[in-house]
Amino acid sequence: MRGSGNEIFCLPLALVVLLGLNVRDVLGGLPSNDDIPYCNCKRKCHGEKKRFEIIISHPLSWQDALIYCKERRMELATIRNSQEHDKILEELKRAGMENGEKSRMFWIGGTKLHSNRGFFWMSEGDQVQYTNWLRGQPDDYAGSQKCMTYQHGWMDDIRWAWDDNYCSSALSFACEYC
């Protein structure tokens, strides 16, 4: 089942305000003429049921990626344990990205925008407990890196792990669904 592209589901008004969006613009939706599944699923997807979709053909800012996923009843990906990290690595292999081909980084759903308590998952507001930061990260370079990415390597650390980045950067991104 696919949405019409003219609705955003489960996007609380507080989120719209936090992102500094115009409610009328949000309700207008985003284009939906793509191959991304429209997810008609329950929230709080964990464990074996959780699936990831990595979108590399449509780079967006972190905020726009969040809306893109939510418009399709998905969430910007959360990685809450090593099993979910392994699962997203499987999706990277399936997409031909395991060695950083096609895209070296993509957005996930962690942020510390307007937060004094550190990084939290935007999907549910839970503080990030499990971490997988690249060596030396997060560094909040210039006091402006507030959104989380998965990145293939940094300096001598050549694995897929997390980095903080400028939220306005246009990057690939990962959505999660059940």
Automatic annotation (TrEMBL):
Which terms are listed as keywords in the entry?
Answer: Signal
Pfam families referenced in this protein's UniProt entry, alphabetically: Lectin_C
List the signal peptide residues: 1-28
In terms of superkingdom, the source organism counts as Eukaryota
Q: Does the keyword Signal apply?
A: yes
C-type lectin domain segment(s): 61-176
UniProt-recorded name of the protein: C-type lectin domain-containing protein
